[in-house]
Amino acid sequence: MSDPLSSVIIPLLYLLSAVLFIFGLKGLTGVRTAQRGNRLAALAMLLAVVTTLIELGVVDYRWIAGGLIAGSVIGAIAALKVEMTAMPQMVALFNGFGGGASALVAGSILWARIVEPGSAGTASALLGADSATTAFLSIVIGAVTFSGSLIAFLKLQGTIGGQPTLIPGRHVVNSLFLAASLVCGVYLAFFAPTPGELAIAALVLGALGLLLGVLYVIPIGGADMPVIISFLNSLSGLAASMTGFVLGNNLLIISGALVGASGLILTQIMCVAMNRSLGNVFFSGFGGETAASDSREYSNVRSYSPEEAAMVLESAESVVIVPGYGLAVAQAQHTARELGDLLEKRGAKVSYAIHPVAGRMPGHMNVLLAEADVAYDKLFEMDAINPEFKTTDAVLVVGANDVVNPAAETDPASPIAGMPVLKVYNAGTVMVIKRSLSPGFAGIKNGLFENDNTMMVFGDAKKILQELVNEVKSLAA
């Protein structure tokens, strides 16, 4: 590799890749620009991989080709086969694989540079204090991200249930294991006298990280999954950035820091949307003690048929559709869009209200509605749509629960007290499509269902929406 190539061209390619990453992330902040942002980020990653291979010079391209083929096949199958309703699970897995990869790379550097050649001395003496420190941080953070993301995946998938699993004395146990991992990491970086002891310390550190990931995520309920997914995304970026220090790769440091910072900002946005702190999400075991305690104590619920609901929608001049996870489970986004289009043809103004934590990951509802070709300008965030409910004729809530619960504003003792919610109860008529009166992930009663202006339409979301479509068509005939 020529000197001008290594000293000028490669840094410029890395800089270009970093700039593309930044513009890609910028594009992902808007619904209209998300696809372009995703393409820019993908191009940045391709450029980064190619530049890194050029910088390394002598590599075994058989392994590179094998990895590219295997990863491409797995990614393509996932993109084609995974339903949009399972996208949160897929994102959780991606976070976990990113963290696991960072831990493995950091561990492989220790193996290749110290353990395999049998080099005498501590990691800090052989690699430098900064590389040794970031190596142990990459291992433990990557391991925590990997196991924590797998638990999040299993909870979202329903394999181990979405309710919190509260271990007795969990805070003390977690603190002890965290302290043990830090002690083990410091020993690995600064005190392990032989390659064998360093290898053992690295394995123990990885095991402690895996255990910590399980212990920290298992007590967290499904209602908090949007926060946990974004936080684990931040951790995966942080682990990658630490690995960049170990490798001496500036682009990995920058891109990892971008992912870590953006994930942390998104985590904070999610916490604000639920009026809770990150510490409360991790340590409160939210939903464990209150689950279903009073969720069915309803005395004034009125059930209506799709035909009766269609008559209200047919005469409404303004309609707001509120999607929730029930819409995703029923895969009813296309039917919801069909109903919206039909009402618009009859002269109604139709909008879609998006709560920041509706669904199981940030932006879940936006992705579902975009898949159904709902126009971007019809999607309104909570702060923008809330003032409009007072002048809205009808609101159609499809599978949402906690994000429209008025207890957040009316009951100071409620577990969701102070949480910003969609103020659908201010509309003229509120139609709620649900299978039953079962609670949301907060496990509490929803007083909206008893309001005088609420019409409950019980049944599968997709089936009910299709019946509404048919009824509105028949009324127009």
Question: What report would you give on this structure?
Answer:
This protein is of the alpha/beta class. The protein folds into three domains: 1-81; 84-283, no CATH class; 306-476, 3-Layer(aba) Sandwich (Rossmann fold), CATH 3.40.50. The chain is 61% helix and 6% strand. It has helices at residues 3-27, 34-56, 61-81, 87-115, 123-127, 129-157, 170-191, 195-217, 225-247, 250-273, 278-283, 306-315, 325-329, 333-345, 364-371, 382-385, 407-410, 461-476; strands spanning 318-323, 349-354, 379-381, 394-398, 429-434, 454-458. Strands 3-2-1-4-5-6 form a six-stranded parallel sheet. The longest helix has 29 residues, at 87-115. The chain is elongated and about 85 Å long.
Give the oligomeric state of the chains in this entry, treating copies of one chain as homo and distinct chains as hetero. single chain
Q: Distance between termini?
A: 75 Å
Please, how many helices? Answer: 18
Biggest β-sheet: strands ordered side by side in the sheet: 3-2-1-4-5-6
Structural class: alpha/beta
Q: Evaluate the radius of gyration.
A: 26 Å
Number of domains: 3
Runs in which pLDDT lies below 50 for 5 or more consecutive residues are: 288-295
- How much β-strand is present in the residues? 5-15%
> How would a crystallographer describe the biggest sheet?
6 strands, parallel
Question: What is the strand tally?
Answer: 6
Give, in order, the helices and strands: HHHHHHHHHHHHEHHEHEHEHEEH
Mean pLDDT: 87
Query: Which shape, going by the Cα principal axes?
Result: elongated
Q: Could you estimate the helical fraction of the residues in percent?
A: 55-70%
